[in-house]
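Work Package 3 (structural annotation) set out to generate three-dimensional models for the target panel prioritized at the project kickoff. During this period the team completed the workflow that converts sequence records into discrete structure tokens, so that structures can be stored uniformly alongside our sequence database. As a representative example, we reproduce one entry of 148 residues exactly as it appears in the project archive.
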Amino acid sequence: MSWLIGLMGFCVAALIATGIYLEMKPRHLPRGLPRWLKGGVLANILVYALAMGGFLLLSVDQALAQEAAVGGAREISLGLGLAIIGVGLPTALAAIGAGIALGPVGSAALAVIAEKPEMFGRTLIYLGLAEGIAIYGLVMSILLLGKI
């Protein structure tokens, strides 16, 4: 089990090192990334994903074998655990969608404000609309949590 954690830590460190390398020496790269770097990053992400999946699969029986820490606590069954994960999914996916939306909207808003500062209020409205996606996901999770 500890070797999976070590492998995941190594993958994260390698991804960070790759990001630092690309940040420090961006002009030394040709038009695109070098072939070895593309393959290395993709392989690193794949190894990390496989290690995370292995870690989850190998730790399931350990988690199920654990005795209750508190005697009076409510026992969480597998179905309840999956329901709680399902309740968290709308917030997670909505936050990812809002992040994807805020990138282009934010950069376009900064470009508009640089040319016409009087458009600041309108650009805030567009940013708020993109951020509203995450709020809708949070509201859905709160409503679903009340159903459990």
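DSSP finds four helices and no strands in the chain.
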